[in-house]
Amino acid sequence: QVQLVESGGGLVQPGGSLRLSCAASRIIFNHYAMDWYRQAPGKQRELVAGFTSGGSTNYADSVKGRFTISRDNAKNTVYLQMNSLKPEDTAVYYCAARYGATGYTYWGQGTQVTVSS
Predict the structure, then answer these.
(1) Pairing outcome for strands 46-51 and 32-39
(2) Contact 27, 108 (CB under 8 A)
(3) Which of 23, 30, 58, 105 is the most exposed place for a label (fewest CB within 10 A)?
(4) What is the spatial distance between Cα 34 and Cα 11, in angstroms, rounded to a whole number?
(5) CB 66 within 8 A of CB 76
(6) Facing residues of 33 across strands?
(7) pLDDT tens-digit series, residues 8-52
(8) Could you count the other beta carbons within 10 Å of the beta carbon of residue 86?
């Protein structure tokens, strides 16, 4: 079935940067919108960044200007560049592949991002 493999998480100091990668397999990449979510302890999973059905990007207000989502269709990979990281960015980050025709979403296993000095 669909597999989403995330990488790039880890520990970083406040103000630092990380780039998360999500490699998708067993899908026709362009049939899916690729999104990034995160979930902090005790909080609901929230959309961080994603692509609309029209191909535009959208971001949570908390990350606008700091995070950038991109995708490489040739590599079936979506990225999340995270700059100026803050402790409140600490969360498990999830890659999601949303099928355009139905909205059905596949999820990765998540990768931990910890921002701490």
Answers:
(1) antiparallel
(2) no
(3) 30
(4) 24
(5) no
(6) 98
(7) 999 999 999 999 999 999 777 778 888 999 999 999 999 999 987
(8) 13
CB 81, CB 93: distance < 8 Å: no
Please report the pLDDT score of residue 51 as a whole number.
84
Count the Cβ atoms, other than its own, within 10 Å of residue 104: 11
Distance CA 57, CA 53 (A): 9
How does the average pLDDT of the chain come out, rounded? 93
Torsion sign (Cα): 62, 13, 70, 44: negative
Residue that has been written with the tokens 């890659």 in this structure? 95
Locate the DSSP E strands across the chain.
Answer: 3-7, 10-12, 18-25, 32-39, 46-51, 57-59, 67-72, 77-82, 91-99, 105-107, 111-115
| Residue 68: count of CB within 10 angstroms of its CB | 15
Burial label for 49, CB within 10 Å (0-12, 13-18, 19+), is buried
